[in-house]
Amino acid sequence: MKDATKGDGVRFSAESSTAYSEWALQHGGEISVMLLSWFDRSARNLPWRSVRDPYRVLLSELMLQQTQVATVIPYYKRFLLQWPTLLDLAGADDQAVLKAWEGLGYYSRARNLLAAVRAVVEQHDGVIPCGEKDLLQLKGIGEYTAGAIRSIAFGLPAAAVDGNVVRVFSRLTATTWQPADLAHRRQVRTLVEKVIPPDRPGDFNEALMDLGATICLPQNPVCADCPVRSSCRAFETASVARFPDKKPAREKPVEQRTCLMITKGGLVHVNRRPDHGLLAGLYEFDWHDGALPLLSAGWPAVRTELGQLRHVFTHKIWLVDGLRIDLMVNPDTNWPDHFDDPGRWVGPDELKTLPFPKVLIQWRDDLVVALSSV
Ligand code: SF4
C-alpha cells in the first residue's frame, strides 16, 4: 500500500489510524462548521438537490461521472420526464435509453444504469438498498457513488471521495495524494469518515463537491474565497501549487479512421455495434474497411468530403475523416451477392430515432436534413 508524504514530514499510512485521528481532532470540527455554513449560503442550485430520493441521486451521480454539471442538467431533466421512477426506467426499452443518453458520452454508464435499476427491481423489490455491500453489487456503482447515495439519500455518515475530494484534502493536509490513485482515495476516505458530521453527512459531501468545483479548482484555486482557508495547511505554507501530486498524463494513442455515409435515394446505410465493447449497442455509419465490397462494386457515386472530427475516449483518440458517398443507383439496387450485409438502409425518420455516438451526431443530424429533402 502506497503512503503519501505530508508536506511537514508526517505520513498518513494505511496501517495506522493515529495521524488521521489527530488531524481530524485538530481540524475536523472547524472544517465541518465552516464548510456547512458556506454551503448554506452558497450551495449550487442543482435539480437533483430538490428531492433527496435514492433514484434521483443514483441517476445524477452516474450521469456526473466524468461529465460537467452543465452538460448533465438537461439530460437529467429529460430522463426524469421520460422515466419518473426507478420502476419506469427498469421497464424501459434499451434503445430508448441509449437514445436519451445520446451525446452524454461514456455510454457504458447508460447500460450500467439500466442493469442496476433492473437488479434493484429483481433483487430488492424495487427499493434501492442503503447498505454499501448491496450497493457495490449493482453495476456502475463504485465506492464514491455508493457513498453519495448513502449519505445524500439515506443520511448515513458515508464518505464520497472522488478525484476532486482527494485534491481538496491533499491541499488541506498538505499531503502528496494523487487523485487517480485508488490507494490514496482510500486514505482520504478514512480521513473524511473521521470528520463527516453525523447530522448532515449528505450536505457535507455535497459541500465538498461544490468546494472542489467552484473554489478549490485544479488550476488556480480561489483561496481568497475559500471557507476552510484557515484550516488549509497548503495555504498556510504557501505551497498550494505542490498539491495534489500530479502524475504525468500518459499520451493516448491516436487512431485515424474514415467514416463513410453511403446513401442511395433517401436512404443511408447504418450498422449496429455489437452488444459488448466500445460504444456497445450504438449505431454508426460504415467504416472504410467494412465498406470495401461496396466501394469495389463500381456503382456510380458522388463523393463529398465532410472534414475531420476528433473524439477523445478514456484511452485513445479517434481522428475521423467523413466522406459522404451518394450512390447514383435506383434505391432498390442490392449489394453485390458476395457481400453479406451486416447493416441496413434507413430513411431520415428512422435515422433520427437511432442512438449514435457523440462523434457522429453532427454528421447524422446533417444527413437527416439532407435525406428529408430527397
Ligand atoms: S485554501 Fe485554497 S488550496 Fe486550501 S482548500 Fe481552500 S481553495 Fe483549496
Can you walk me through this structure?
There is one protein chain. This protein is an alpha+beta fold and 374 residues long. It folds into two domains: 4-242, Endonuclease III, domain 1; 254-372, Nucleoside Triphosphate Pyrophosphohydrolase, CATH 3.90.79.10. 43% of the residues lie in helices and 14% in strands. It is built from 15 helices and nine strands. It has helices spanning 18-42, 54-64, 69-82, 86-90, 94-101, 108-124, 132-136, 143-153, 163-173, 182-195, 201-214, 233-236, 292-295, 348-351, 358-372; strands at 4-5, 11-12, 254-264, 267-272, 283-284, 286-287, 301-312, 317-327, 344-346. The strands form two sheets. Strands 3, 4, 5, 6, 7, 8 and 9 form a seven-stranded mixed β-sheet that branches. Helix 2 (54-64) packs across helix 3. It starts with a strand and ends with a helix.
Summarize the structure.
The protein is of the alpha+beta class and 374 residues long. 43% of the residues lie in helices and 14% in strands.
Question: What key attributes describe this structure?
Answer:
binds iron/sulfur cluster, 2 domains, two-stranded antiparallel ribbon, Nucleoside Triphosphate Pyrophosphohydrolase, alpha+beta, Endonuclease III, domain 1, 14% strand, seven-stranded mixed sheet, 374 residues
Poorly predicted regions are none
Mean model confidence by pLDDT: 91
In CATH, the architecture of the largest domain is Orthogonal Bundle
Name of the CATH homologous superfamily of the largest domain = Hypothetical protein, domain 2
Query: How many domain modules?
Result: 2
Count helical runs. Answer: 15
Largest sheet: 7 strands, mixed
What portion of the residues fall into strands of 2 or more residues?
Answer: 5-15%
| CATH domain fold name of the largest domain | Endonuclease III, domain 1
β-strand number: 9
